[in-house]
């Protein structure tokens, strides 16, 4: 027979699972705040836009030569991945993480440079489970760990600060907050 | 113990926020869509891609957003195939040329097809759609729309070949929605717009994506390309 009671075990589980969850919790917390504000910014990529004008673009025999001509006018290397016309007179030159849109009549140029954000982008990939596969199981395990922390956390201490006193009110408040918003938005 | 409890609290909020994010993706906030052209008999119109859902302002030329706001008010003109199952992903082996689909989309309506082409447009906000260029013309592209979060197209996929499988579907944007979108576009450019000039709904053909494969783009943080120079502001 173990000499320890269930509360002791709850302490042990809560402590060790808590340590285990620190890394992933911080990742989810950072990503959670980032994606909550997706309307205000792009949480995955830093997008730099550069605008300018190269003047009317001279006709060229092929799209390829046209793209090279535009890139040369911009002083850029002439390599690119593909070409596309988003509208009749706008040529899009797609380079690695770099898109150049040029209005062939006015010469207006819009460049977009995409850079994945150093920490937040990988955090979002994990948090939002972009990759699926094995990570789904890791994320599930993390969710189970959080549930374990929640349940064991309620019973860590006895007395008026425990679940029968202050803890009860705080726990009830924790439930009330999401319920209130569900009611508010219903 | 306090630290552990704090960590738990943050984690719980993070999980909650992730769920909220996912839900937002599935049920986007109603917004006015942006359409590009009125419906024509030949439904080769590209799907709207400039919606500014996220900021509620008029779209800017060249901006490509997720299109969810437009999708929200659009009406599906195609019944989804019975075999639609996101978990099954890709199962076809033969590719259908994008040019064939765009040439006669009615022939493919409701059918499951496998296509491939270089990505020439991608959803900036959620990676929920990608535009694949036709193999025949640089002026043709087919939009592949996936369920938010089921498949995520990274912005770094631009220019890389993407294989996508899905159901060809028709989406209809009501006249009022198209007019409102044009109005906002015109306002953004400081131009006048006559609502009566739009006489028909906008019909858009796209692929409801069920699975996709693409070259793994570099996900590691990269330096801003050093060769990206601002274009000269004066005419040369």
Model description:
The complex is a heterodimer of chains A (186) and B (236). Chain A is built from five helices and five strands, in the order H-E-H-E-E-E-E-H-H-H. Chain A is of the alpha+beta class and 186 residues long. In chain A, strands 1-5-4-3-2 form a five-stranded antiparallel sheet, covered by helices on one side. In chain A, helix 1 (6-36) crosses helix 3 and helix 1 (6-36) packs across helix 4. Chain A is elongated. Chain B has one domain: Nucleic acid-binding proteins (OB fold (Dihydrolipoamide Acetyltransferase, E2P), Beta Barrel), CATH 2.40.50. Chain B is built from five helices and six strands; from the N terminus they run ααβααββββαβ. The model of chain B is unreliable at 13-72, 76-87 and 219-226 (pLDDT under 50). Chains A and B meet through helix 1, strand 1, strand 2, strand 3 and strand 4 of A and helix 1 and strand 2 of B.
- Indicate the structural class of chain B: alpha+beta
Distance between the termini of chain A: 52 Å
Shape of chain A: elongated
The number of strands of chain B is 6
Instruction: Estimate the mean pLDDT confidence of chain B.
Output: 68
Describe the strand arrangement of the main beta sheet of chain A, using strand numbers: 1-5-4-3-2
Largest sheet of chain B: 5 strands, mixed, barrel
Q: Helical element count of chain A? A: 5
Oligomer: heterodimer
Q: What does the radius of gyration of chain B come to?
A: 20 Å
Order of helices and strands of chain A: HEHEEEEHHH
Low-pLDDT stretches of chain B are: 13-72, 76-87, 219-226
Top-tier CATH class of chain B: Mainly Beta
The portion of residues assigned to helices of chain A is: 40-55%
Number of distinct helices of chain B: 5
Low-confidence stretches of chain A are none
């Amino acid at each position: 027979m173990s000499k320890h009671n269930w509360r002791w075990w709850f302490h042990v589980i809560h402590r060790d699972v808590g340590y285990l969850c620190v890394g992933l919790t911080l990742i989810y917390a950072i990503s959670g705040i980032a994606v909550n504000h997706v309307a205000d910014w792009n949480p995955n990529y830093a997008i730099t836009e550069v605008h300018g004008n190269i003047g009317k673009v001279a006709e060229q025999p092929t799209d390829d030569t046209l793209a090279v001509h535009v890139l040369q006018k911009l002083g850029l290397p002439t390599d690119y991945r593909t070409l596309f016309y988003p509208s009749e007179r706008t040529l899009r030159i797609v380079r690695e993480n770099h898109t150049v849109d040029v209005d062939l009549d006015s010469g207006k140029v819009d460049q977009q440079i995409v850079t994945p954000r150093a920490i937040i982008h990988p955090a979002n990939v994990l948090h939002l489970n972009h990759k699926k596969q094995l990570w789904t199981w890791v994320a599930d395990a993390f969710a189970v760990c959080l549930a374990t922390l929640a349940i064991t956390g309620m019973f860590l201490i006895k007395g008026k600060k425990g679940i029968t006193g202050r803890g009860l009110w705080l726990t009830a408040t924790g439930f009330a907050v999401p319920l209130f918003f569900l009611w508010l938005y219903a | 113990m306090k630290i552990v409890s704090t960590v738990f609290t943050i984690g719980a909020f993070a999980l909650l926020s992730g769920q909220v994010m996912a839900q937002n993706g599935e049920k986007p906030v109603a917004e006015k869509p942006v359409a590009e052209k009125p419906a024509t008999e030949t439904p080769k119109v590209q799907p709207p891609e400039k919606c500014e859902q996220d900021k509620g302002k008029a779209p800017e030329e060249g901006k490509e957003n997720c299109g969810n706001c437009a999708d929200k008010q659009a009406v599906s003109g195609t019944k989804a195939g019975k075999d639609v199952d996101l978990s099954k992903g890709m199962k076809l082996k033969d590719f259908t040329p994008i040019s064939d689909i765009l040439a006669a989309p009615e022939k493919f309506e409701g059918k499951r097809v496998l296509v491939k082409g270089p990505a020439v447009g991608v959803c900036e906000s959620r990676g929920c759609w990608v535009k694949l260029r036709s193999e025949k013309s640089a002026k043709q592209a087919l939009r592949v729309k996936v369920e938010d979060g089921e498949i995520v197209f990274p912005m770094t996929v631009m220019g890389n070949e993407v294989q996508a499988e899905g159901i060809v579907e028709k989406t209809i944007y009501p006249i009022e929605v198209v007019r409102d979108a044009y109005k906002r576009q015109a306002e953004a450019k400081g131009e006048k717009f006559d609502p009566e000039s739009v006489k028909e709904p906008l019909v858009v053909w796209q692929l409801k994506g069920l699975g996709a494969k693409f070259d793994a783009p570099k996900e590691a943080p990269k330096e801003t390309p050093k060769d990206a120079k601002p274009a000269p502001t004066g005419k040369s």
